[in-house]
Specification:
426 residues; alpha/beta; Rossmann fold; 3 domains; four-stranded parallel beta sheet; 17 helices; 45% helix; chlorophyll biosynthesis; metal ion binding; iron; ATP-binding; 4 iron, 4 sulfur cluster binding
């Protein structure tokens, strides 16, 4: 990696503490909140309970006069008790929905905890409904159940379910994989265009008829580190993955772009011409925001699967020391390049036994703890400074122009704690 030298031996082969105890997870249905904004002619129909509906409404902040592109087909007591044919009920609800919303081109049947508990076969339902309502509407199913999954796995399951239906192509092309905020995606596409990389497609695309295809001459670059199933599905279709650190911070973005540029034969001179200015802006922004992070320690609870790339960013670019980096899953084909750039030292843990991990964080007393909402308030009450992991998923943090904002998300809790201590001393 000519632009990002590795000053240590890296952590790819570091031992991993594997835990299989009680987990603190956030429901995978929440991924619908950002996915439905990306796919303009799609509708996400959760087959679940009123609890699922309340969760989505709360997470999205849906106003009463809005008509969002997601909803819940409520499983009533008769469905759960087997007194009604849930498949017939589902067919009827889908028919009503499509009759009312003629703009829908992709309909996602999203499994939930209740539908999985009663073994409702949504794959069979999707095939039946696709045959009935196609070709105008394609019906796809995936699971967003929170029983044993972390909340970002909902996106992974959704994109992986889309891959088998993508058209076949023999063309040489790059696919960007992962849902990004529109402003961030536009920045990425602009950088690639200026580098001369193309043609470029995006998964998920804005519309069902966008020219997204896959085949043996296609390569893909992931923008999110939680897309393990999608990665496997694309490889099965013959596409090849461009392994790279994820585009968080100046160094991560440069390494990601460099890997893509090398794949497409971009010269060093052209690469420097396109990236030098935004790299300099990103370095200045990170340096300013990271003043409060220098020589501070950080502890990651497993939550979003962003943990390893973010730990690389914080340790290499912000001067922090990582004590423990926990992730729900550690997929080295995806996060291995980030681990290569990390200095030896932190404990890597996969999965979770929340009681044991709480013991370790109490012993370590880190300056900053990155964790889920359910753990943040109790840890704050005990005097630990925390950062909500979920905010890192909903906030634009990728690529050069967001590098300073990313550092700021971590520095603000520490600045706030320092100010409170100062006020208390006065």
């Amino acid at each position: 990696m000519k632009d990002v030298p590795n000053t240590g031996q890296g952590c790819r082969n570091a031992p991993i503490l594997k835990e299989r105890g009680q987990r603190e997870v956030f429901c995978g249905l929440t991924s619908i909140i950002w996915l439905h904004r990306k796919m303009q002619d799609a509708f996400f129909l959760v087959v679940g309970s009123r609890t699922c509906a309340h969760l989505l409404q709360s997470a999205a902040g849906v106003m009463i006069f809005a008509e969002p592109r997601f909803g819940t087909a409520i499983l009533e007591e008769t469905d759960l008790a087997g007194m009604a044919d849930a498949q017939d009920e589902l067919d009827r609800e889908v028919g009503r929905l499509l009759e009312r919303r003629g703009d829908i081109r992709q309909l996602f049947l999203v499994g939930s905890c209740p539908s999985e508990v009663i073994k409702l076969d949504l794959e069979k339902a999707a095939e039946r409904l696709s045959a009935r309502h196609g070709p105008h509407v394609r019906v796809i199913n995936f699971s967003g159940s929170g029983i044993e999954t972390t909340f970002t796995e909902g996106e992974d399951a959704c994109l992986a379910a889309m891959v088998p239906g993508l058209p076949e192509t023999q063309d040489r092309q790059l696919m960007l994989v992962g849902a990004l905020p529109d402003v961030v995606q536009d920045q990425a596409l602009d950088l690639l265009d200026r580098l001369g990389v193309g043609p470029v497609t995006v998964l998920p695309s804005a519309r069902a008829d966008d020219p997204v295809a896959v085949g043996p001459n296609a390569v893909f670059a992931l923008t999110q580190p939680f897309l393990g199933d999608t990665h496997a599905a694309l490889v099965r279709r013959g596409a090849r993955h461009i392994a790279a650190p994820f585009p968080f911070g100046e160094q991560g973005t440069t390494a990601w772009l460099r890997a893509v540029a090398d794949e497409f034969g971009v010269s060093d001179e052209k690469f420097a011409e396109v990236t030098d200015a935004p790299r300099a802006r990103a370095r200045r922004a990170v340096a300013q925001a990271a003043e409060a992070l220098e020589n501070r320690s950080v502890f990651f609870f497993p939550d979003s699967q962003l943990e390893i790339p973010l730990a690389r960013f914080l340790t290499r670019e912000c001067g922090m020391t990582a004590i423990e980096v926990g992730a729900p899953f550690i997929h080295k084909d995806l996060v291995g390049p980030d681990m290569d750039l990390m200095a030896e030292g932190p404990v890597f843990s996969e999965g979770q036994d929340v009681d044991l991990q709480l013991d370790r964080v109490h012993d370590a007393k880190p300056d900053l703890t990155v964790c889920g909402l359910g753990l943040a308030n109790p840890l704050e009450a005990e005097g630990l400074t925390t950062k909500w992991a979920i905010e890192l998923v909903f906030t634009p943090v990728h690529f050069y122009e967001q590098a300073g904002d990313l550092a700021g998300l971590f520095s603000r809790p520490l600045r706030r704690r320092d100010l409170l201590k100062l006020e208390a001393a006065e």
